[in-house]
Recover the amino acids of this structure.
């Protein structure tokens, strides 16, 4: 197998995709009576804390929303096997998971930090660092992911469930969500342009490396 087929994924590129960001410096805001914004997609419904607007039409299985006041972007998506995707993210260094059960749904919650990309260049100013919270729920034949991209100058963020970004925004969202079954959801391997067999081979390599077998990478780097 050629080296180009080995899955080396830039986590932030997958998460923010075509969503643009404008970061505004500001003091951390205290929790207030922000109100809620209900939402509904073909695969989940619920409500956001604060005033949140839909960013773009996206497609049936990827929908983005923006909280302009707190500079938080939410990307909601579904696929056949979200757990496999999270194995790859963990291999890349995403921290977690923390486990929570809300509204009958078992969520795994992960944390990361990343720098924004502007005009195809990664910003190096550390004051522009983004906080990332990923909530994933795998059902029998369908997985669900909520990506939250947080301006750390506007909302307090830490790599755990104790920050304002989690307690004031993410946890209320997860508590409100109802998940819907969808037909013909995207396959996770399609996101990487691989056949199902090739994706499974690469996932097995990652699992071997995680188990301590570093030699599993040697054949992929030739």
């Amino acid at each position: 197998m050629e080296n180009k087929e080995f899955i080396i994924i830039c986590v932030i590129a997958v998460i923010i995709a075509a969503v643009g960001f404008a970061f505004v410096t500001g003091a951390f805001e205290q929790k207030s009576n922000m109100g809620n914004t209900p939402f509904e997609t073909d695969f989940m419904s619920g409500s956001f804390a604060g005033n949140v607007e839909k960013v773009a039409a996206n497609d049936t299985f990827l929908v983005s929303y923006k909280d302009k006041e707190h500079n938080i972007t939410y990307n909601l998506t579904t696929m056949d096997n979200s757990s496999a995707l999270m194995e790859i993210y963990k291999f890349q260094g995403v921290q977690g998971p923390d486990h929570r059960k809300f509204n009958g749904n078992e969520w795994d919650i992960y944390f990361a930090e990343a720098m924004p990309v502007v005009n195809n260049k990664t910003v190096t100013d550390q004051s522009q660092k983004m906080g990332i919270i990923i909530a994933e729920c795998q059902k029998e034949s369908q997985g669900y992911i909520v990506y939250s991209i947080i301006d750390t100058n506007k909302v307090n963020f830490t790599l755990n469930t104790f920050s304002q970004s989690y307690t004031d925004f993410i946890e209320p969202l997860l508590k409100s969500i109802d998940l819907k079954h969808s037909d013909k959801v995207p396959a996770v391997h399609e996101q990487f342009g691989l056949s199902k067999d090739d994706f499974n081979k690469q996932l097995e390599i990652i699992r071997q490396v995680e188990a301590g077998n570093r030699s599993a990478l040697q054949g992929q780097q030739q």
Notes: The chain has four helices and twelve strands. Residues 119 and 132 are 20 Å apart (CA to CA). Residues 1-32 have pLDDT under 50 and may be disordered.
